[in-house]
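hiii so um. not sure if this is the right channel but i have a protein structure encoded as tokens and i wanna go backwards to a sequence. like what aa goes where. can anyone help
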């Protein structure tokens, strides 16, 4: 399929459709934290305005910052509480977070207009991961990291399952 620019899509192609837009608002700032070049913001605004005028549902991909903050906060809380919670509670918390991740993934998959694409992607991803041995590679990497950061006392800094 040949790629199209946003301006090549008409109202019939966009109306009511969910459109994923990757935005990069990482703009240069001066010492007073004022934006010195707003080119990226202006470029994103023209695309967003075009989609709105064609009644598309816009999903802005700006989640990287949110993900980094959530990971940092989660790691910080985990580091602070790791020795204060009983092992059973820690296990329950990890299982609950795993189930929540699964639920979020299922909700996103069910919202798609093409569930076959989701199924196909999962199957192909699993097969490719098995062929290249991604699980074994991740385990080796984890062992190297664990050995590098292992403390001299009897307690380790990493949780093992």
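sure thing!! here u go:
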């Amino acid at each position: 399929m040949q790629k199209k620019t946003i301006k090549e899509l008409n109202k019939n192609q966009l109306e009511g459709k969910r459109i994923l837009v990757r935005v990069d608002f990482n703009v240069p700032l001066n010492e007073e934290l004022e934006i010195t070049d707003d080119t990226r913001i202006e470029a994103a605004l023209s695309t967003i305005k075009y989609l709105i005028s064609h009644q598309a549902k816009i999903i802005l991909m700006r989640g990287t910052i949110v993900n980094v903050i959530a990971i940092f906060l989660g790691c910080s809380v985990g580091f602070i509480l790791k020795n204060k919670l009983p092992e059973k509670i820690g296990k329950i918390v990890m299982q609950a977070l795993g189930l929540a991740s699964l639920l979020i993934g299922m909700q996103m998959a069910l919202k798609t207009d093409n569930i076959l694409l989701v199924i196909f992607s999962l199957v192909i991803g699993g097969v490719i991961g098995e062929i290249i041995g991604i699980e074994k590679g991740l385990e080796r990497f984890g062992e190297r990291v664990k050995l590098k950061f292992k403390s001299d006392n009897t307690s380790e800094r990493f949780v093992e399952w």
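oh and Residues 87-111 form the longest helix (25 residues).
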